[in-house]
Specification:
The protein is α/β, with parallel strands linked by helices. It has a single domain, classed as Ribonucleoside hydrolase-like (Inosine-uridine Nucleoside N-ribohydrolase, Chain A). Helix content is about 45%, strand content about 15%. The strands form two sheets. It has an eight-stranded mixed beta sheet, sandwiched between helices. It has a two-stranded antiparallel ribbon with strand order 8-9. The longest helix has 28 residues. It is globular. The protein starts with a helix and ends with a helix. The relative contact order is 0.14.
């Protein structure tokens, strides 16, 4: 009888624990991840596809979309219209400090068309710091542009910056530079998002924030004619926006560097990471050197799985 009583008591104590353990993964999977996207949308077309993938991913709670590099207000107006066309005007749009830039913003006319554009936007730095303070340890910063805003965050309040859950960035070149993935590698070279603010990149890699890096090695994904045609023919408000932005971009085959950051967050198996010690040198190279890891880096991605995810999401009603 004493044995039976002990067994019953143990059952009463252990069953709730086991039940909670069984329910925990399901509970995590249904809680959207809080993200802020920091983008130089308006030059290359890949930023627009990254934003579109985020909008079509219920796993993400987009706290805000921030713009960086050059005319940040013009970039913010492009985001305004994309969100308006997609029926997501509830997402805040922020503008970073404008900087000098000589490259043409090919998609500027899209934002200046008078659709949904706001006359001005709140400051990116203040907004991002406020969101980190509100949700310490919960916010993922997705950095898919030059790192001016990241550097400004670290300058203004490094202690709050370290309360980010993580930074997931597109940037750097570890073993391979620009060029078709099937062509012979010319070796690493300075990458756009790094070289446009080398001091900010150095600060980020020294910051001790959890850092996940999608470099040129794993992000040169060609969005060929067949894939484009399938997405563009869907005729949704979002795919129509992408179609228009693509034609304003004015080139033929996009390389979808930036969406890999979103794909990694949604399914880490698409771009497996490995720990590395990365040093940013004065020329903008991101060099792998001996030392304790300061970043998790993806060198090789699954392009088939990436496009299956991207096209499936964008083509969904």
């Amino acid at each position: 009888m004493r044995f039976s009583i002990v067994a019953i008591l143990l059952s009463l104590l252990i069953d709730p624990i086991l039940s909670a353990q069984r329910e925990e993964p399901a509970q995590r999977s249904t809680t959207p991840e809080k993200v802020i996207i920091d983008s130089d949308i308006g030059d290359d077309i890949d930023d627009a596809f990254a934003v579109a993938l985020a909008l079509k991913s219920p796993e993400l709670q987009i706290l805000g979309i921030s713009t960086t590099f050059g005319d940040t207000e013009a970039r913010a107006k492009i985001v305004d219209r994309m969100l308006g066309e997609a029926g997501r005007t509830n997402i805040p749009v922020l503008a970073g400090t404008p900087t000098h830039a000589t490259n043409p913003m090919t998609q500027r006319p899209y934002g200046e068309g008078g659709h949904f554009a706001k006359s001005s936007h709140p400051n990116s730095i203040d907004f991002i710091l406020d969101q980190i303070r509100r949700y310490p340890g919960q916010v993922t910063l997705i950095a898919i542009g030059p790192l001016m805003n990241v550097g400004a965050l670290l300058d203004k309040d490094p202690a709050t910056f370290l309360k980010l859950k993580r930074v997931v960035m597109m940037g750097g070149s570890i073993e391979r530079g620009y060029g078709d993935p099937w062509s012979p590698s010319r070796g690493p070279e300075p990458e756009w998002n790094i070289i446009n603010d080398i001091p900010a990149a150095k600060k980020l890699f020294l910051s001790r924030v959890p850092l996940y890096v999608m470099p040129l090695d794993s992000t040169q994904l060609k969005f060929d004619e067949v894939k484009r045609a399938y997405v563009f023919k869907q005729g949704t408000s979002l795919t129509d926006a992408l179609t228009l932005l693509y034609h304003q971009w004015g080139q033929q085959t996009p390389t979808l560097f930036d969406p890999m950051t979103l794909a990694y967050i949604l399914d880490p198996r698409i771009c497996p990471v490995e720990p590395m010690h990365i040093v940013v040198d004065d020329k903008g190279f991101t060099r792998r050197e001996p030392g304790p890891p300061n970043a998790q880096v993806c060198l090789r991605s699954d392009s088939d799985a990436f496009f299956h995810l991207l096209i499936g999401r964008l083509a969904a009603p």
